[in-house]
Amino acid sequence: MPFPKTNIHTLEDIYSLPDGERAELINGKIYNMAPPNRIHQKLVMELSGTLREYIKSQHGSCEIYPAPFAVFLGENTPNYVEPDISVICDKNKLTDKGCNGAPDFVIEIVSPGSRKMDYSTKNALYSDFGVREYWIVDPAKERTTVYRYEEDAAPIIIPFSMPIAVGIYQNLSITIADTIAELLE
């Protein structure tokens, strides 16, 4: 009995997508991405701005990249993802195409269609490939799940109303509710 044929996709398939269509490639499988909603985009903008201002005020060298920004994880079977926010501190990872290797800090904003992807698939991927810190910001549940993979600790779930310490920085905390207060009312 023959085995069922499986399609293993490559980066060529990602680069062949029609203009305006976005997808991610994880372990040979393509995941289409729906356009983000207004709360999603507001969170991306505000969190990126907060991180950027902090880094500038500290004369830091890390760089912030909001989606769409290509992150390539793995060498032999590359995975292509577009985290909502990537913080990269090692400039040797940056190329004109994106980031080759794990960002130091990744934030994903949960959308109705991305829940399983953000909590499961990407969580495992980011852990396996060396992301230091991963936040899953969930507007529907008004909470953030924080993973600090370097510490090998259990995730922490923090309501939007509480400050979240940014693990890769010594003295930065962010209260999500403050960034989108008018949208949560």
UniProtKB/TrEMBL annotation:
InterPro entries on file: Nuclease_put_TT1808, Restrct_endonuc-II-like, Uma2
Domain Putative restriction endonuclease: 12-151
Pfam family of the protein (one): Uma2
The protein's name: Putative restriction endonuclease domain-containing protein
Organism: Blautia hansenii DSM 20583
Lineage start: Bacteria, Bacillati, Bacillota, Clostridia, Lachnospirales
